[in-house]
Design brief:
By secondary structure, this protein is of the alpha+beta class. Helix content is 44%, strand content 22%.
């Protein structure tokens, strides 16, 4: 059995290297800006879509969504008033 080649030289073509460098730069920029007001709209949208997916899953499994609210409090994400009444298939949600 051949041992694995752990040498990374020549592993990626130009497009793959560009992609990996771009992802690395975006990750560093997001981490640096995470606690600033610039990312607040994006974080709100992300939280809203995440919680909306829970609400959709609840409705698809015959549950009842009373309400959910995403808001900012001093530039910090909070989830308030998230109430779901599970009537069926609770483990799937």
């Amino acid at each position: 059995m051949d041992s694995p080649n752990w040498e990374l030289r020549g592993c990626c073509n130009r497009n793959q290297n560009t992609f990996l460098i771009t992802i690395g730069v975006f990750t560093v920029v997001i981490l640096l800006l995470w606690r600033t007001f610039l990312l607040t709209p994006f974080k709100l949208i992300t939280v809203f879509l995440h919680e909306a997916s829970h609400a959709v899953a609840c409705k698809l499994t015959c549950g009842d969504v009373r309400s959910f609210l995403t808001s900012t409090t001093s530039l910090q994400m909070n989830l308030k008033g998230y109430k779901i009444d599970f009537r069926s298939l609770e483990p799937l949600i």
